[in-house]
Design the sequence.
């Protein structure tokens, strides 16, 4: 189970900003932050694709698109691929396209 934390939202983790994973089987909580390679801003949006990859965007040009493969985060700017860096949402289509 995944949750996005914003400094503008309700959080029991003080002023934490990032992505939280709750492992139901292990009953463990893990906070991922910039120290883990996640690009962070306010208002996180998350989608977990069919292959289990978690994608995040933060709705502003300050943070790019981040991808978690189950082990580590990688971040990219869509402008590097000809797109815009303002990413207000992320979704997966039926055919698996992000």
Sequence:
């Amino acid at each position: 189970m995944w949750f996005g934390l914003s400094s503008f939202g309700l959080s029991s983790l003080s002023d934490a900003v990032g992505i939280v994973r709750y492992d139901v089987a292990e009953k463990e909580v893990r906070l991922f932050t910039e120290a883990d390679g996640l690009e962070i801003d306010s208002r996180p949006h998350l989608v977990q694709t069919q292959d289990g990859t978690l994608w995040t965007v933060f709705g502003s040009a300050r943070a790019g698109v981040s991808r978690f493969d189950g082990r580590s985060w990688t971040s990219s700017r869509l402008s590097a691929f000809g797109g815009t860096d303002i990413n207000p949402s992320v979704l997966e289509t039926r055919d698996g396209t992000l």
